[in-house]
């Protein structure tokens, strides 16, 4: 006699569907192809979380970051892929070079594209790599070859905002940041620079609310932790700012501007010895355009028993960035 299954038996025998990394990855690629970059990132992060050793998921995530202008983050991901997988993912060299080119770091871009051409003469991006190298050898921009009008517009915004932020010209920076957030909603840095300017010019409570909200979405966000450390320090909330400092204490980013962000945050919050060590490891040639480099490096030097070096840094900083002269110097506790 054939045994029949009850409804409950059928339920018990159903194997639940558990999405794997490939499922999340596919959804991420589909969103990317539709230019829904925020959704693509969410799916790809789930794929990476489920299958952390699948390098292709990391690479695709870096490509999304490139598309939204987060070139530093993209390169950090790609560098980690190379460090873990060696020669298995040579295309990473080209992708890194492309990101550096977008950032205007032409020497770094040339270095990586040459490595790619040498290591992968028949690679998937060899034609693009040779074209990029030709561009880099000329040392001039050729928009029709490799950039897009929107990327150029974003770069102009970035440079203008950077100019005003370095001079603490909050009135000028905030409207531009608001425009950036509207035009480029996926550009991560703009919203954090907006909250920073908001804190020091408009509304401290609102700035903190925004960063705490974003931190819930991105618990590892370097921007959130550095901004909140500064915000809570300025408000005298020691336990809170120290918690955020602990979150970045053992973080050593790849790109110089991210390294600078940590160094200035440590100096701003009174961790002078740690800040001084970080500043000493920075590349001055890449950061001399940052007034914050001179300001906080000199402050860290002064408070760690290096007054002569502090004065030298301060004087050089004031020559390069006259706006610094309105401050009182490194000997004044910030």
UniProtKB/TrEMBL annotation:
Which chain regions cross the lipid bilayer? none
Instruction: Keywords in alphabetical order, please.
Output: Repeat, TPR repeat
Q: Where are the TPR repeats?
A: 21-54
Is the keyword tRNA-binding in the record? no
Q: Isomerase among the record's keywords?
A: no
Protein's name according to its UniProt entry? Tetratricopeptide repeat protein
Give the lineage: Bacteria, Bacillati, Bacillota, Bacilli, Bacillales
